[in-house]
Amino acid sequence: MAMYAALGAEVTLVTCTRGEEGEVLVSELSHLASSQSDLLGVHRETELRDAMIALGVKDFRFLGNGSVKYRDSGMMGTEPNNRPDVFWQADLDSAAAHLVSVINEVKPHVLITYDEIGGYGHPDHIQAHRVAMRASELAQWKISKIYWNAMPKSVLAEGIAKMKEIGSDFFGAESVDDLPFAKDDALVTAMVDGTKYVDLKMKAMAAHATQIELDGPFFALSNNLGQQVWGHEYYSLVHGDKCEPFDSHGRELDLFAGVNPI
Q1: Domains, the chain, with CATH or none
Q2: What burial letters (b/e) apply to 124-155, b meaning 16+ CB within 10 Å?
Q3: pTM of structure
C-alpha cells in the first residue's frame, strides 16, 4: 500500500470490523480487552488511523456506508461467533452490497483480499474473502485483476530457520507444515518488491500496539531478516491475466501489469 500510494495510485482500504475481540498483548493496555470493557474497538480505530498515516493511505473506511456496522466475531468456535451483530453472522449479499457501493464509487483496477481460508482461519478473514469475491461479481464496475494474499513456504522456511539460529521461535512453529497460511510456491503468482518502503511498513505495524509486541517474534524476525522478508509481499492471481514483467520464478512484479488505466 505504501509503495503504490507513493507512486500515485489511489489506494482504498476497507476494514470490516474494529477488532473488538482481539487479544491485547500489552499489559498497560489490558484494561481495553473485551473481557474488561468494550473500549478496544474505539482504541483500534486510532491504531488503524495512525497506521494508514504512516503508509500514506488517505482513503480508509469501514464496511457499511462509512460507519462501523459489523462487530468482530472472535476466533472460530468462540461464544462471540454467535452474536447476531458480528461479521461472521452477516448475510453475504447484504454485506457485499456495502462493498459494491465502494467498488462502483472508487472503480478499482485491482482488488486484494484474503484467500479462501482467511489466511489462518479467522472467521472474519474468511467472511472478508467471501464478501470481496461476491461484491466483485455483483458490482457494475468490473475489476481487471483480483489477488489473494499469499506467503510461500520457501520464505516462511527461511524465517523459521533464522529465528532458530537466535534461539527464538517463529510464532510457535517448528516447520512450515505447522503454518496454515503457508502456500506451495507454485501457487504464488506475484511478488511485489517494496523494500524501499519497509520503514513505513514497520511504523504502520508498530501503530497496532495492542496487537503486536515490539519485542515479540514479528519484530525479532524483522531485526534478523529485515527488508529481505518484510519488503517482499506475495499474492496469487485469481482473476485477470498474468502479465510481464516477471521475476526469475515467473511471478508478476507489478499488480497493475497489463491493466488499462482508462
Answers
A1: 2-149+191-211+235-239 (3.40.50.10320)
A2: bbbbbbbbbbbbbeebeeebbbbbbbbbbbeb
A3: 0.91
